[in-house]
Amino acid sequence: MSEAIEITEEDDEGLPRMLASAVRAALADGNAEELDRLLNPLHPADIADLLEQIDDRQRAELLYQWKGGMDGDILSELGDDLREEIIDALGPKELADVVRDLESDDVVDLVEDLDEDQQEQVLDALDVGDRVAVEKALAYPEESAGRLMQMEVVRAPAHWTVGEAIDYLRASDDLPEQFYHVILVDPRMKPVGYVTLGRLLGTPRPIHLTELLEDSFRTFRVDQDEGDVAYAFNQYHLISAPVVDEDDRLVGVITIDDAMIVLDEEHEEDILRLAGVDGESSLTDKVIATTKRRFPWLAVNLVTAILASMIISLFEETIAGLVALAVLMPIVASMGGNAGTQSLTVAVRSIATKDLTGANVWRVIRREVLVGLINGLAFAVIMGLVGYVWFGQPMLGVVIALAMVINMVVAGLAGTGIPVILEKIGIDPALASGAFVTTVTDVVGFFAFLGLAAVMLL
């Protein structure tokens, strides 16, 4: 049997150093006591990270040996594919224990991406009241405020005093695990404002709650896009906000932790999509699933590469007459592509944060074009000298300098303009812009360089 390993220092990812190796050793020895010692002190997010670091067989063995250790908070931290694997490995009783203590929004997040059989497994594990609440939330559109909210709401009549509200809270036995506001409602259950717990506890009992209302109060409709909700939380520094139905009646509440998860996911998706990778990808995805997600945009890139090659083929005689052109033309295309990617990244991020709008789009495009022009002129001087020194032909230096300026200017224009156009026609600019910008810079770069060479050198 292996000796207990003292694990105190943390590595760069936040997990205790050597933890994964120690867990593997405990699993190999069947040492459940050591497994408990290693895992029980960890945060659910760290356990989720650990489950991603070990292989399928070790995960199955961990679930078998770590009896009662798995809980809903850990499942909530897992990626979709790994979550499905863990749910399949849990028995009905274990699954019931795992999900029983979760808030309704966490259960919805847990089950919404599962297949029907697995959804039924989780729903069967819930109490009747919790199941009804979850099924009601699942009836709302995907990625909407209705899916994001929790239905456990702390509310009070608008005419109550501080004392009445405090007495109610102390007497209640079904308060949410975490909440930040008491939402005030009128007799028709329409929210009219909210009071923070801090002000509630720091105010004399006779004061009416309406005297403590927060200026930040705003509501969201159940069908409102969760991205817009997350943006509002970030923009207006919200902590929680009520969710209302089509009749403006209170049906739930969204808290800052859920809103920030959405914001983080959207940022991550944008980064992945800029590289042509599906926003739902993770390190635990299976090979076939990963291949299917990446294939379509690789196919698009192949088509755009063929288009660029067709431009080159138009100048076969020019390249044959001066081999130096074949050496230098990748430089022009590469510089344009990199400049276009820089503008593209700024534009996509600005669109996502709603900073780039119709009111300032032309100013931003003009700025990016001027940046491309200035950078193009600077690098044109450098490449002009390189072309002259390298090949001893002054005009070759002039050609590559002019082509560099043209392509850098076009890169700035395309990098900003293409995402804006795609967003206007309803296509995700993060996913589609990269291929189009690369195509434009390659085609323009090759055409400008080889075209100028054909006119000025041959």
Order of helices and strands: HHHHHHHHHHHEHEEHEHEEHHHHHHH
The biggest sheet amounts to: 3 strands, mixed
CATH hierarchy class name of the largest domain = Mainly Alpha
Residue-averaged pLDDT, rounded? 84
Structural class: mainly alpha
- Rounded to the nearest angstrom, the radius of gyration is 29 Å
What percentage of the residues does DSSP assign to strands (E)?
5-15%
Count of separate DSSP helical elements: 21
Report the uncertain regions.
1-12
Number of strands: 6
Architecture of the largest domain, according to CATH? Orthogonal Bundle
- Look at the structure and name the CATH superfamily of the largest domain: SLC41 divalent cation transporters, integral membrane domain
CATH topology of the largest domain: Tetracycline Repressor, domain 2
Tally of individual domains: 3
Helix content: 55-70%
Intertermini distance: 80 Å
List the strand order in the largest sheet.
Answer: 1-2-3
The 3D shape can be described as globular
Task: Explain the overall architecture.
This protein is mainly α and 458 residues long. It has three domains: 124 residues, Alpha Horseshoe (MgtE N-terminal fold), CATH 1.25.60; 120 residues, CBS-domain (Roll); 170 residues, SLC41 divalent cation transporters, integral membrane domain (Tetracycline Repressor, domain 2, Orthogonal Bundle), CATH 1.10.357. The protein is 64% helix and 6% strand. It contains 21 helices and six strands. The strands form two sheets. It has a three-stranded mixed β-sheet. Strands 4-5-6 form a three-stranded mixed β-sheet. Helix 8 packs across helix 10. The N terminus is likely disordered.
